[in-house]
Amino acid sequence: MSIASHSDDLTRVPMSWDEYLALEDTPGEYYGGSLVTMAPPGRKHQRIMFDLQTLIRHHLAPGTDVTQAWGWSPRGVREELVPDLMVHVQTDEERTLTSTPHLVVEILSSNRRDDLVGKLNRYAQWGAPAYWIVDPRDHVILTHRLEDGYFVETGRYTSGTATLTYGPVEVPIDVDALLG
After folding, report:
1. Mean pLDDT taken over the chain
2. Global pTM value
C-alpha cells in the first residue's frame, strides 16, 4: 500500500500508471508517478470557470468544443492532467482527451506552483498551442502561445475589456466582470 503525502490542498498517492488506469472514477490527476488529488474548487473559482466556458462557447470555431475539468493525456504519455477548461476538436472519447487541444486554461487557486510552473511546462512539452492562466487573487489573465516548444507570454490583462486569442479565434472578455 502506498503512503500518501500532503502539501497545501494536495494529496499525492504514489502508484503506477496501470494502477491509475484501473481506477473506476479518476479522482484527480496523475503525474510524477502519483495520483494527485486536491480540494474541490471554491465558489469563485467555479463561477469564473462557468463564465469563461460560456464566453468561449460563444466563439468556438466549427468542429470544436469546450469542456471543463476533463482529463488530457496525449498518446504515448503516461500522465494525465485535468485542465479547468480545454478547447478541442469534437470527439467521442469519454475518459480522456488524447489529441492536442487548441487551448488549455487553468484558474489559479491555492496550489499556484503546479499551474504556473509544472503544468505550464507539461502543456508546452505536450504541444498545446495556447495556454491561459486566470489568476483571481492577483486579478490578471495571462495568455501564452507555444513557440519552439516553450510558452511565450502574449498578453497580461488586468482590467477593462480585452480580446483573448488562441489560434485565429478571438474571445472578447470583460476582465473586471470575470474576475470581480
Report:
1. 91
2. 0.92
